[in-house]
Design a protein that fits this description.
0% strand, elongated
Length: 175
């Protein structure tokens, strides 16, 4: 059985805090066997473990990987040979992706004025390009926030809570 990214993220996060499976099981109020089964991919990583690492250890990667495995879309932690997750690199990449997305969106805006049922295939490619560039921004911004929060000891959960409060105050989101 292939072990998934979320399972590996749990194991890495647990090793990072130098805890055994038994110690982790005490903290999350589950059996050591449940922790083992999630780390080995026999069971999906449960939300309580993802929340535990994000809230208690400021490590959002377990939750990010688990969400990706549940939905099969969204961001995964970049781990390929070309990925550079240094804080300066992620900041530069985030800015680069923003600029590319703005350029692509400017081109797409002219096409978005046309009724979707009358769009031409060339115009659809421009719109799809703007979507792809926007997805690059989402990936880059998630990595930027996660890495900056972790390295500077800024609470990932606090930042998201403040963001949610702001959205509620501006009436973009209902409680």
């Amino acid at each position: 059985m292939k072990v998934g990214r979320a399972a590996n993220a749990v194991k890495n996060a647990r090793n990072e805090i130098k805890a055994t499976q038994l110690e982790l099981s005490f903290d999350i109020h589950e059996s050591r066997e449940a922790v083992s089964q999630q780390e080995n991919g026999r069971y999906r990583v449960q939300p309580n473990i993802a929340s535990y690492f994000a809230e208690k250890h400021n490590n959002p990667w377990v939750a990010i990987e688990a969400a990706h495995e549940y939905t099969h879309w969204g961001v995964s932690k970049l781990d390929g040979e070309a990925a550079d997750l240094h804080r300066n690199s992620t900041a530069l990449k985030f800015r680069e992706e923003l600029e590319e997305a703005i350029y692509a969106m400017d081109k797409a805006m002219k096409k978005l004025a046309v009724n979707p049922s009358h769009i031409q295939s060339m115009d659809m490619e421009i719109i799809e390009k703007s979507i792809q560039e926007s997805l690059d921004v989402i990936t880059a911004s998630n990595h930027y926030v996660a890495i900056i929060c972790k390295e500077y000891g800024i609470s990932w959960m606090k930042m998201w809570t403040q963001h949610k409060v702001k959205l509620i105050q501006r009436r973009f989101l209902k409680k």
